[in-house]
Amino acid sequence: MSKKIPLRQCVGCGEMKNKKEMMRVLKTAENEIVLDVTGKKNGRGAYLCVSKDCLAKARKNKGLERSFKMSIPDQVYENLQKEFENIESE
Fold first, then answer.
1. DSSP state of 63
2. DSSP state, 69?
3. Please, what are the domains in the chain?
4. Confidence band for 9, pLDDT divided at 50, 70 and 90
5. pLDDT digits (tens, 9 = 90+) for 44-82
6. CA–CA distance, 54 with 1 (Å, rounded to integer)
7. 6 Cβ partners below 8 Å, 6+ apart?
8. Cβ pair 24, 30 in contact under 8 A
9. What is the C-alpha to C-alpha distance for residues 37 and 27, in angstroms, rounded to an integer?
Protein backbone atom coordinates (compact mmCIF):
# COMPACT_ATOMS: atom_id res chain seq x y z
CA MET A 1 0.00 0.00 0.00
CA SER A 2 1.52 3.30 -1.04
CA LYS A 3 1.48 6.28 1.24
CA LYS A 4 -0.84 9.02 0.09
CA ILE A 5 0.98 12.14 -1.09
CA PRO A 6 -0.68 15.29 0.23
CA LEU A 7 -1.57 17.49 -2.72
CA ARG A 8 -2.35 21.18 -2.53
CA GLN A 9 -3.71 23.57 -5.11
CA CYS A 10 -1.67 26.62 -6.05
CA VAL A 11 -3.72 29.80 -5.55
CA GLY A 12 -1.81 31.28 -8.50
CA CYS A 13 -1.92 28.77 -11.37
CA GLY A 14 -4.52 26.40 -9.91
CA GLU A 15 -2.37 23.30 -10.42
CA MET A 16 -2.41 20.48 -7.90
CA LYS A 17 1.08 19.65 -6.69
CA ASN A 18 2.85 17.78 -3.94
CA LYS A 19 2.64 19.81 -0.75
CA LYS A 20 6.41 19.55 -0.21
CA GLU A 21 7.14 21.28 -3.53
CA MET A 22 5.11 24.33 -2.62
CA MET A 23 5.40 27.44 -0.47
CA ARG A 24 2.85 27.91 2.29
CA VAL A 25 1.50 31.39 2.82
CA LEU A 26 -0.01 31.77 6.24
CA LYS A 27 -2.62 33.98 7.85
CA THR A 28 -1.82 34.20 11.56
CA ALA A 29 -4.27 34.82 14.39
CA GLU A 30 -3.22 38.48 14.22
CA ASN A 31 -4.30 38.56 10.53
CA GLU A 32 -0.71 38.89 9.39
CA ILE A 33 0.23 37.30 6.10
CA VAL A 34 3.63 35.59 6.23
CA LEU A 35 5.58 32.97 4.32
CA ASP A 36 5.65 29.76 6.33
CA VAL A 37 8.85 28.09 5.20
CA THR A 38 8.52 25.17 7.65
CA GLY A 39 4.88 24.48 6.77
CA LYS A 40 4.19 23.77 10.44
CA LYS A 41 2.95 27.06 11.88
CA ASN A 42 -0.59 27.40 13.14
CA GLY A 43 -3.01 29.39 11.06
CA ARG A 44 -4.86 29.33 7.77
CA GLY A 45 -2.55 28.30 4.97
CA ALA A 46 -2.68 28.80 1.24
CA TYR A 47 -0.19 27.27 -1.15
CA LEU A 48 1.80 28.71 -4.03
CA CYS A 49 4.23 27.15 -6.47
CA VAL A 50 7.76 28.33 -5.78
CA SER A 51 7.71 30.78 -8.67
CA LYS A 52 7.28 34.51 -8.97
CA ASP A 53 4.84 33.91 -11.84
CA CYS A 54 2.41 32.15 -9.55
CA LEU A 55 2.72 34.90 -6.97
CA ALA A 56 1.93 37.43 -9.69
CA LYS A 57 -1.04 35.34 -10.86
CA ALA A 58 -2.33 35.00 -7.29
CA ARG A 59 -2.10 38.76 -6.95
CA LYS A 60 -3.97 39.31 -10.21
CA ASN A 61 -6.70 36.73 -9.65
CA LYS A 62 -6.98 37.54 -5.93
CA GLY A 63 -6.27 33.90 -5.00
CA LEU A 64 -4.92 34.76 -1.55
CA GLU A 65 -7.82 37.13 -0.87
CA ARG A 66 -10.24 34.29 -1.58
CA SER A 67 -8.30 31.78 0.51
CA PHE A 68 -8.08 34.08 3.52
CA LYS A 69 -11.42 35.87 2.97
CA MET A 70 -9.81 39.26 3.51
CA SER A 71 -8.28 42.01 1.43
CA ILE A 72 -4.52 41.92 1.19
CA PRO A 73 -2.52 45.16 0.99
CA ASP A 74 0.12 45.67 -1.71
CA GLN A 75 2.78 45.85 1.01
CA VAL A 76 2.12 42.19 1.85
CA TYR A 77 2.58 41.15 -1.78
CA GLU A 78 5.80 43.14 -1.95
CA ASN A 79 7.11 41.39 1.18
CA LEU A 80 6.17 38.00 -0.25
CA GLN A 81 7.90 38.91 -3.50
CA LYS A 82 11.11 39.77 -1.61
CA GLU A 83 10.96 36.51 0.35
CA PHE A 84 10.42 34.58 -2.89
CA GLU A 85 13.47 36.24 -4.44
CA ASN A 86 15.56 35.21 -1.42
CA ILE A 87 14.40 31.62 -1.77
CA GLU A 88 14.95 31.48 -5.53
CA SER A 89 18.46 32.90 -5.21
CA GLU A 90 19.59 30.34 -2.57
1. H
2. T
3. 7-89 (3.30.1230.10)
4. very high
5. 999 999 888 999 999 999 999 999 999 999 999 999 889
6. 34
7. 18, 19
8. no
9. 13
